[in-house]
Amino acid sequence: MRKQSEAQLSLPIPEAPVSSAKKSNNGSLYYGSNGFIVPEWGELVWQKQYDKLELYHHGLIEYARHELFQTICIPPKKYPSPPERDLQCFAHQMPERFPCFSMVHPIMTYPRASPAHPIVPEDREALPHHNPHFLDPDYFLKTIYPPFKKFFQAHLRAFIFEFPEHLPTSGMKPKLFTTKLENFAEKIPEEINIAVVLSHKDYFNKDYLEILKRPNLWHVFNVCPTMPEPLEQHIALAEQKEWLVLWAPQNEGKTEEHSQIKELLQTRKKEPCFIIVKNHPHCPAPTAIRELRKTLEHKL
Length: 300
Description:
This protein is an alpha/beta fold.
């Protein structure tokens, strides 16, 4: 990475007009990616070729102006405590009230750490061990939340808790999971929204649905082979004031996943819906969003 002065890295990007498509927002549909420091996006998003350091310092300015994006999810760092300088830097780049989400660190969502499923880098060389901070409300309120409250409150819509596919094999039975989730939700202030992503149908049960009656607890719709289809998830749920979809496409083009998301959104009334797309080497998030939007705009 080439060396550059802080002044060079902080230079503002020339103003660019926002398209009418972005302003209209397609009926309160907000599209965004899980992260933005992706030099490989190239001409799909960026005005010129940037390295990661340049994108860290001013990439969100271009991202927020791009007609594809109306929201974003900030992914976690290697370690649990989010650096204040990161949040301060990101908040400074975004327009006022640009809606954001934050994916919490695996220390909140992995019951166990192992070389195959590390929580922090050191776990790759360590023996499997219990994670004492799994759904620990005190740890969350003391370690994870304070930097967001200080620097990111105006943008943050919810923290996304994505529970892993290996949850069933980690010793976390569905009953124990819902007990821990309920205990966590009870101790989190109502102004903090928690968005839950499940990866296995065994956890999408009556006890879980009952906990979701809390106003600050959201269910995240997803397209996952071990979960009910998004429409089935919606039918089982009580109404939510805001919708959140997390999608991890594996290939470009029109897919069955497009159809599943379309069927879900056809049932939407006036609820705002945020669609967060994970980036994949074979399917960049900007390309996936563009293709999904083409499908939805002539179907909805």
